[in-house]
Amino acid sequence: MSKRPFNASVKVLSVDVPGRRLVTCGSVFQGTCQLRHIDDISDAVQTDSRGNTDYFVAANDPRLSTVAFMAPGPGPGPGPVDGLYVAATYTGTAATAVRQAVPAVSLRAVDHTSRTAFRFDLLPL
To answer: Which of 61-65, 90-94, 102-106, 112-116 has the lowest mean pLDDT?
Structure first.
């Protein structure tokens, strides 16, 4: 498989202050995200999210909207978590079951425990 350039739209650009990272999500790869260290944004970490709709965050159509911000939120345990609040335009149809599993409004818990990998845990609002 050869690589080739393509057009993509940045849908989310938000700072994870405690993790000192920049969260970027684009319109390609079903709206998945990358983390970039705040001191060197050229160094990006992308999750291995193939087939896992929990990682599909942003609208995957450059013409449609996604709004996101980082803030503390309720966690699955006793204390709050740092979360990425996301509202994304639905981009699927009945024929595309993948996008039907992506919530229009969500809170994604951000994992600060690793500098080389990350995950988004989908939390109830």
So the answer is: 112-116
